[in-house]
Amino acid sequence: xxxxxxxxxxxxxxxxxxxxxxxxxxxxxxxxxxxxxxxxxxxxxxxxxxxxxxxxxxxxxxxxxxxxxxxxxxxxxxxxxxxxxxxxxxxxxxxxxxxxxxxxxxxxxxxxxxxxxxxxxxxxxxxxxxxxxxxxxxxxxxxxxxxxxxxxxxxxxxxxxxxxxxxxxxxxxxxxxxxxxxxxxxxxxxxxxxxxxxxxxxxxxxxxxxxxxxxxxxxxxxxxxxxxxxxxxxxxxxxxxxxxxxxxxxxxxxxxxxxxxxxxxxxxxxxxxxxxxxxxxxxxxxxxxxxxxxxxxxxxxxxxxxxxxx
Length: 310
Ligand code: GLV
Known about the structure:
Structural class: alpha/beta
Number of strands: 12
Order of helices and strands: EHEEEHEHHEHEEHEHEHEHEH
Bound molecules: glyoxylic acid
Radius of gyration: 21 Å
Low-confidence stretches: none
């Protein structure tokens, strides 16, 4: 029996087609815009699909995000109401987001900006050693990604705080929750890593007030979504020295426009939304399992709560 599903993404479909063949040989991946008969498509594996595409598939049993975020699905006003939605929580992508945050946090913590500048002048000069046990990192958002990222920092020996909407517990991580606890958490945290889901409540959460609560010279890493940040406020906080630097992997408009001030800001590192790209080898296993589960009417992995928005 062949099970036909639609793939929509800008990424090369080749490795995905191979990974799906390995995961479940009965799956047949149709690469948008090649759809064949839309009535034969039972699942859609999508990243930023054109609005209305999902609604044009009459026998859809599953909408599977090609990312952990589903904001791109809810952006479509015609997303079919009765079809379950699943997020992709690829364990390799989640681990890589931790690696990414750690790479940039350590570069800041170990003052690599200073050493790079010194190298350019052939200067041999060490700075006093930084104390990671007395450096606090806050991870905002404690879902599957936040738990892993916080755990990685905690295992490196940083004092690690977590903040989320509802109460969570993670071994070795001091977890706080609720809007009232946000500023107090930021106030303790030299390094802040944002992995929140984007919802109406979290849009613009990283604004002038939030930056003003962080210790002076602090560092921000955003691997969640661009609209969490008020860009003008961030630039102001960097220019005033309130923040010492920022690493940004996500932006309000992607690709980041040529000429955007983030590209050339001396305190900003820009990467092209790559911190947690899913790996076909592991991600396809999860998606294949979910397609089978949806067809059998069984519970899905990482099913989205439409009311919550993630
Ligand atoms: C990427 O941004 C994702 O949602 O996984």
